[in-house]
Transmembrane protein
Amino acid sequence: MESESKQVKQKLGVLDILKEAVTFYVSNINFIIFTFLNSLPFFFVMLYFEILFQQTIVETPEIFSLLPFNERNHAYELDVIYDYGTNIPSRSFRKNYLPDKSFSKDYLPVLILLGFIYLVPLHVLELCSAVVTMDSASKLYSEENNMSVMDMFKRSIDISIMKGTFITSLYMLFWSTCLLIAFPWMAGNCYVLFRDLGYYIFFAVICFLGFVKLLKVYLEWSAIWNMSFVISVVDGIYGIGALRVSYYLSRGNQKRGLLVMLVFFALGLCLRLSCVSLGCYKGGYGIFVQIGLLAVLNTLKWLSCMIYFSDCKERKMQKKVDEESGKDLAK
């Protein structure tokens, strides 16, 4: 009995969570077909977003040079006039120099479009896809039965769950956007502070430390608000209530949640960087492969979050039972 209790108390490690998610995914062919069909609208919007986003990433140095605080670096150019025959400079003067592109005209509209796509159509489609995917996965995971693809579609359409989960997703979107904005804001401030001093190594070190800290915070909170999303779908708790329950269940499990999110963040980053380096955004089948793999990773991420939530919930319930039994023995 004691050994059985110890086995129940044992936590799933990060590798165990990932292995269970992959096993669940590949062992259900109907679920793979269902998630593929379910993700098609998200796939096509993501395709357009990624092409535009990767082009912007490639042009980031040029965009950065055209920002207002860099205008003085290209405001003038030096013209030198040489004496005829001697090739000796006689005089020089500066004249106004305007770059070929303007930040406000060429790049600001693109950045606004990227922000709009990310916040509205991409967010809504990812929400719908994630809700339907997790709802079907939770039924398969708990009931341990094989549903057909048609049954998954019929049983996954629940407007009340969609509405409630949308409220939770707004909180997720707000906090994630705030943290994502903090990355370029921090880099821009560091650059403005240290550009005139010439301490570029110091600037790089400060940026690196700041990015690491922000990334740690972002991944820790990603695990919490992703679990709140699962709670909204599985347990029907929405908004602030879902975030509170998620924060409570995450206590003592922050490291596991962070590592799970880090795995998917690193895989997604490697896919995007490899696609950028190979120039897949210019055309060809590479970008389709990348978006397809990102869609699979997204499904595996939500499956991992669901398994992580179930394990944290089981641990908390077991701990509560042990505490109550301990009190009874003390009496």
Remarks:
- The longest strand covers residues 89-96.
